[in-house]
Amino acid sequence: MGKDTFGKMMPRALTQNLKIMGEQIMLARKRRHLSMQDIADRATVTRLTVSKVEHGDPTVSMGIYARVLYALNLEKGITLLAADDALGRQLQDAELLRTPVPK
């Protein structure tokens, strides 16, 4: 298990994925030659909050992550978060196979 958040343990995979996302956000900012303060101003948050986002801090709300992505013109990527639901489709297909076909 990973970082303790609000009294609950954060699974290690989630902690690692948040760190990766934070690094990707930082790289996107640097590619655009923007400072943390530039992004903070655009996202209407503090520079400290942008730093937390870039470190993948799990205590930062999803809304803040979305605002930072918007400030980088990367907001369309948000729709990809739960787009591929392979397990859900498998469960649905299995249920459909058990359902009798009406005559």
Question: How does this structure look, described?
Answer:
It is a single chain. With 103 residues, the chain is mostly helical. It has a single domain, classed as 434 Repressor (Amino-terminal Domain) (Orthogonal Bundle), CATH 1.10.260.40. It has five helices and two strands; from the N terminus they run ββααααα. It has a two-stranded antiparallel sheet with strand order 1-2. α2 packs across α3 and α2 crosses α4. The longest helix is centred in the first third of the chain and has 20 residues. It is elongated and about 65 Å long. The termini are far apart. The mean pLDDT is 89.
Summarize the structure.
The protein has 103 residues and is mainly α. It contains five helices and two strands.
